Amino acid sequence: MIGHSATRRRATVRAQRVLVGLAFAMAAPSPARAEELEYEVKAEFVERFTRFIEWPAASFGSPAATFVVCLAGQSPIAPHLEKLAKERAIKGRKATFRRVAQPKEVDGCHLVFIGPTEGGKLADYLAVTSGRPILTIGDSAGFAARGVLLNFYLQGGYVRFEVNAAETKKSGLQCSAKLLKLGKTVSLWGP
User: Does residue 16 have a pLDDT over 60?
Assistant: First the structure.
Protein backbone atom coordinates (compact mmCIF):
# COMPACT_ATOMS: atom_id res chain seq x y z
CA MET A 1 0.00 0.00 0.00
CA ILE A 2 2.79 2.39 0.84
CA GLY A 3 4.32 1.98 -2.64
CA HIS A 4 0.95 2.59 -4.25
CA SER A 5 0.49 5.81 -2.26
CA ALA A 6 3.95 7.11 -3.26
CA THR A 7 3.30 6.34 -6.92
CA ARG A 8 0.00 8.13 -6.72
CA ARG A 9 1.64 11.20 -5.11
CA ARG A 10 4.32 11.32 -7.83
CA ALA A 11 1.64 11.09 -10.52
CA THR A 12 -0.33 13.86 -8.84
CA VAL A 13 2.77 16.08 -8.60
CA ARG A 14 3.56 15.43 -12.29
CA ALA A 15 -0.02 16.27 -13.26
CA GLN A 16 0.12 19.48 -11.23
CA ARG A 17 3.39 20.47 -12.91
CA VAL A 18 1.88 19.83 -16.33
CA LEU A 19 -1.18 21.89 -15.45
CA VAL A 20 0.94 24.77 -14.12
CA GLY A 21 3.07 24.62 -17.28
CA LEU A 22 -0.03 24.69 -19.48
CA ALA A 23 -1.46 27.61 -17.51
CA PHE A 24 1.73 29.62 -18.07
CA ALA A 25 1.85 28.66 -21.73
CA MET A 26 -1.75 29.78 -22.23
CA ALA A 27 -1.30 32.99 -20.25
CA ALA A 28 1.65 34.22 -22.29
CA PRO A 29 0.87 34.27 -26.01
CA SER A 30 3.51 33.01 -28.38
CA PRO A 31 5.50 35.69 -30.22
CA ALA A 32 3.57 34.91 -33.42
CA ARG A 33 0.23 35.25 -31.63
CA ALA A 34 1.40 38.44 -29.91
CA GLU A 35 2.21 39.96 -33.33
CA GLU A 36 -1.15 38.87 -34.69
CA LEU A 37 -2.91 40.48 -31.73
CA GLU A 38 -0.88 43.65 -32.26
CA TYR A 39 -2.06 43.92 -35.85
CA GLU A 40 -5.67 43.11 -34.95
CA VAL A 41 -5.51 46.05 -32.54
CA LYS A 42 -3.93 48.28 -35.18
CA ALA A 43 -6.68 47.39 -37.68
CA GLU A 44 -9.27 48.36 -35.06
CA PHE A 45 -7.44 51.66 -34.60
CA VAL A 46 -7.55 52.22 -38.36
CA GLU A 47 -11.32 51.80 -38.38
CA ARG A 48 -11.69 54.01 -35.29
CA PHE A 49 -9.56 56.74 -36.89
CA THR A 50 -12.10 57.02 -39.70
CA ARG A 51 -14.79 57.84 -37.16
CA PHE A 52 -12.90 60.99 -36.18
CA ILE A 53 -12.04 62.16 -39.69
CA GLU A 54 -14.27 63.68 -42.36
CA TRP A 55 -13.47 63.43 -46.05
CA PRO A 56 -14.64 66.16 -48.43
CA ALA A 57 -17.78 65.12 -50.34
CA ALA A 58 -15.80 65.46 -53.58
CA SER A 59 -13.61 62.53 -52.44
CA PHE A 60 -16.46 60.22 -53.37
CA GLY A 61 -17.80 60.10 -56.91
CA SER A 62 -21.36 59.53 -55.75
CA PRO A 63 -23.38 58.90 -52.60
CA ALA A 64 -23.14 55.17 -53.34
CA ALA A 65 -19.36 55.17 -53.85
CA THR A 66 -17.36 52.72 -51.75
CA PHE A 67 -14.71 53.63 -49.19
CA VAL A 68 -11.43 52.28 -50.55
CA VAL A 69 -8.86 50.96 -48.07
CA CYS A 70 -5.47 50.38 -49.68
CA LEU A 71 -2.29 48.67 -48.56
CA ALA A 72 1.03 49.74 -50.03
CA GLY A 73 3.67 47.05 -49.74
CA GLN A 74 3.72 44.17 -47.29
CA SER A 75 2.53 44.22 -43.69
CA PRO A 76 1.14 41.74 -41.16
CA ILE A 77 -1.92 44.02 -40.98
CA ALA A 78 -3.04 42.95 -44.48
CA PRO A 79 -5.50 40.16 -43.52
CA HIS A 80 -6.98 42.34 -40.79
CA LEU A 81 -7.58 45.29 -43.13
CA GLU A 82 -9.05 42.94 -45.71
CA LYS A 83 -11.41 41.48 -43.10
CA LEU A 84 -12.33 44.98 -41.92
CA ALA A 85 -13.26 46.04 -45.45
CA LYS A 86 -15.35 42.90 -45.99
CA GLU A 87 -17.25 43.04 -42.72
CA ARG A 88 -17.81 46.71 -41.93
CA ALA A 89 -19.06 49.88 -43.45
CA ILE A 90 -16.72 52.86 -43.15
CA LYS A 91 -18.19 56.35 -43.06
CA GLY A 92 -21.57 54.77 -43.81
CA ARG A 93 -20.25 53.28 -47.05
CA LYS A 94 -19.46 49.78 -48.21
CA ALA A 95 -15.70 49.31 -47.98
CA THR A 96 -13.32 47.59 -50.37
CA PHE A 97 -9.71 46.51 -49.90
CA ARG A 98 -7.04 46.95 -52.54
CA ARG A 99 -3.29 46.36 -52.65
CA VAL A 100 -1.11 48.90 -54.40
CA ALA A 101 2.42 48.23 -55.62
CA GLN A 102 3.35 51.69 -56.90
CA PRO A 103 2.68 55.22 -55.68
CA LYS A 104 0.68 56.10 -58.80
CA GLU A 105 -1.83 53.36 -57.88
CA VAL A 106 -3.14 55.23 -54.80
CA ASP A 107 -5.57 57.27 -56.91
CA GLY A 108 -9.04 56.28 -55.78
CA CYS A 109 -7.87 55.25 -52.29
CA HIS A 110 -9.39 57.05 -49.31
CA LEU A 111 -6.99 55.45 -46.84
CA VAL A 112 -3.53 54.09 -47.59
CA PHE A 113 -1.72 51.96 -45.03
CA ILE A 114 1.95 52.16 -45.97
CA GLY A 115 3.77 49.01 -44.93
CA PRO A 116 7.31 49.00 -43.58
CA THR A 117 8.56 47.49 -46.85
CA GLU A 118 7.84 50.80 -48.58
CA GLY A 119 10.32 52.96 -46.64
CA GLY A 120 12.45 53.38 -49.76
CA LYS A 121 9.44 54.59 -51.77
CA LEU A 122 7.86 56.66 -48.99
CA ALA A 123 8.80 60.01 -50.54
CA ASP A 124 7.20 58.87 -53.82
CA TYR A 125 3.96 57.84 -52.06
CA LEU A 126 3.86 61.13 -50.16
CA ALA A 127 4.47 63.10 -53.37
CA VAL A 128 1.21 61.60 -54.66
CA THR A 129 -0.84 61.89 -51.44
CA SER A 130 0.40 65.15 -49.89
CA GLY A 131 -2.21 67.89 -50.02
CA ARG A 132 -4.94 65.44 -51.03
CA PRO A 133 -7.74 63.98 -48.89
CA ILE A 134 -6.09 60.58 -48.58
CA LEU A 135 -5.47 59.32 -45.05
CA THR A 136 -1.98 57.86 -44.91
CA ILE A 137 -1.14 55.56 -42.02
CA GLY A 138 2.26 54.07 -41.33
CA ASP A 139 3.78 51.54 -39.02
CA SER A 140 7.47 52.43 -39.04
CA ALA A 141 9.68 54.69 -36.99
CA GLY A 142 10.02 58.13 -38.55
CA PHE A 143 7.14 57.81 -41.04
CA ALA A 144 5.07 60.60 -39.45
CA ALA A 145 8.06 62.93 -39.34
CA ARG A 146 8.54 62.24 -43.05
CA GLY A 147 4.92 63.19 -43.87
CA VAL A 148 2.62 60.23 -43.15
CA LEU A 149 -0.49 61.59 -41.42
CA LEU A 150 -0.79 58.93 -38.69
CA ASN A 151 1.89 56.47 -37.63
CA PHE A 152 1.76 53.58 -35.16
CA TYR A 153 4.41 52.83 -32.57
CA LEU A 154 4.62 50.62 -29.47
CA GLN A 155 5.28 52.04 -26.03
CA GLY A 156 5.35 49.88 -22.94
CA GLY A 157 3.54 47.09 -24.77
CA TYR A 158 0.72 49.39 -25.89
CA VAL A 159 -0.15 50.51 -29.40
CA ARG A 160 0.15 54.28 -29.70
CA PHE A 161 0.09 56.64 -32.66
CA GLU A 162 1.67 59.86 -33.73
CA VAL A 163 0.06 62.59 -35.81
CA ASN A 164 1.68 64.90 -38.31
CA ALA A 165 -0.76 67.76 -37.67
CA ALA A 166 0.67 70.07 -40.34
CA GLU A 167 0.35 67.45 -43.09
CA THR A 168 -3.08 66.43 -41.81
CA LYS A 169 -4.31 70.03 -42.10
CA LYS A 170 -2.77 70.34 -45.57
CA SER A 171 -4.59 67.16 -46.72
CA GLY A 172 -8.05 68.72 -46.55
CA LEU A 173 -9.25 66.01 -44.18
CA GLN A 174 -11.17 67.34 -41.19
CA CYS A 175 -9.72 65.65 -38.11
CA SER A 176 -11.49 65.80 -34.79
CA ALA A 177 -9.64 67.65 -32.04
CA LYS A 178 -10.15 64.49 -29.93
CA LEU A 179 -8.10 62.43 -32.39
CA LEU A 180 -5.35 65.03 -32.54
CA LYS A 181 -5.17 65.15 -28.73
CA LEU A 182 -4.91 61.38 -28.42
CA GLY A 183 -1.93 61.14 -30.74
CA LYS A 184 1.59 62.34 -30.15
CA THR A 185 2.18 65.33 -32.42
CA VAL A 186 5.29 65.25 -34.58
CA SER A 187 6.75 67.77 -36.97
CA LEU A 188 7.81 67.30 -40.56
CA TRP A 189 11.58 66.99 -40.83
CA GLY A 190 11.88 66.53 -44.56
CA PRO A 191 12.84 63.65 -46.85
Answer: no
